Amino acid sequence: MAGSSEDKAMEQASEAKKRDAFNGHRAYSRIYTIQKKYDLATKEMRDAVREQPKAAKAHYFLGNALLNQQDWKASQQEYETALSLDAAYMPTYFRIGHLAARSESNYARGEEAVRKYLAYKPADDEPKIGSAWYWLGMIQEKQGKKAEAKQSYLMAQKLAPDLKEATEALKRVP
C-alpha cells in the first residue's frame, strides 16, 4: 500500500476521493483488494459505475473487481460494456483473455482479445506484454494446444523473467 500503513493508505484514498471521485473509488478498491475484502472493492467500483455510467474505465475496473470474486458472467458483461463505450481502451482486451483463461470459457473470444493486446504497446500503468503471453498460453493449454502454449509461455518468460507462473507452466507443458 504505497509503502505505508493501512491507515495512511485509507487517508490517502479519502483525499483522492475529494479531488477525483473515480480515482478515490479506485484507491479504495485497491486497498480492499489487497485486504482481500473483495465485496467492498466491488462496491467501490459499482459506485464508480453508478456515478459515471458512460466511463469505459469505470466498467473495466468493476470487471476487474468481479473477476477477483470469480463472478465470470458479470465480469465479462462489464468488459464488453467498457469496449462498447471505448473500443480503444486496450487493457480491456487483456482482461478478456485473462477472464477466458481463469473461467475456462469463451476461449475463442479470449484468444482474439489477447492477440489484439499483444499488437499494442502498453503504457507503464497497463498490463505487461509478458503477462499477456502467459494468459494466451493458458488459453492454449486449456484447449490442449500444448506446442502453442509452450511457445507462448516461453515468450512470457523471455519478456517477464520474474513471472513465476510462466516458469511453472513450462514445467507442465514440456
Could you list some keywords that capture this structure?
174 residues; mainly alpha; Serine Threonine Protein Phosphatase 5, Tetratricopeptide repeat; globular
Describe the protein in words:
With 174 residues, this protein is an all-alpha fold. It folds into two domains: 1-89, Tetratricopeptide repeat domain (Serine Threonine Protein Phosphatase 5, Tetratricopeptide repeat, Alpha Horseshoe), CATH 1.25.40; 111-174, no CATH class. It has helices at 6-19, 21-34, 38-51, 56-68, 72-85, 91-103, 107-118, 129-142, 146-159, 164-172. The longest helix has 14 residues, at 6-19.
Provide a short characterization of the protein structure.
With 174 residues, this protein is mostly helical. It has two domains: 1-89, Alpha Horseshoe (Serine Threonine Protein Phosphatase 5, Tetratricopeptide repeat), CATH 1.25.40.10; 111-174, no CATH class. 75% of the residues lie in helices and 0% in strands.
